[in-house]
Amino acid sequence: MHHTTASRGHWLVAIGAIVIVGSTMLQWWQVGGGADGLAAVTGTGMSDGRIFLMMFLPAVASLFLVTLPFASEKPMGIDHPLAYLGIFAILLAGYVWYLEERVQKQLLPWPPQLGLGFWFAAIGLVLFARGVFEVYEERRRRLY
User: Fold this and answer.
1) 102 lies in a domain?
2) Residue 12 gets which letter from DSSP?
3) 3-state secondary structure of 120
4) Does the residue 129 lie in any domain?
5) 48: Cα separation from own chain's centroid
6) How do residues 27-45 score in pLDDT, each as one tens digit?
């Protein structure tokens, strides 16, 4: 087993991915249930195929990518900052696509307790983005 320590960027990527995975299991939207007397209709992130394909699966893949150096004897070529950037691009595209649809239908979850998963996913994306930046910086420092 290759003994290595995870950099700060890898830790941030992993924490961001865990927050994103957790957010997909929470409520992302709600219609009704307020003072208007309508029954509340809600949906989780997992119930939407786009969120599953473009957020849950890439977040889990990034967790595998973060743990890969600990499971191998030698450095792997796929453990490269571009891989993290590609996963982040997919995550961001999925979130923006979902956000665009919600805005067009005027169903943006506000106040935040009407869609905690939606807002936690945003926090996870910020953590993930910062982690990708740190991974790039760590590699740049290592090369010079």
Assistant:
1) yes
2) H
3) helix
4) yes
5) 15
6) 998 887 776 677 888 888 8
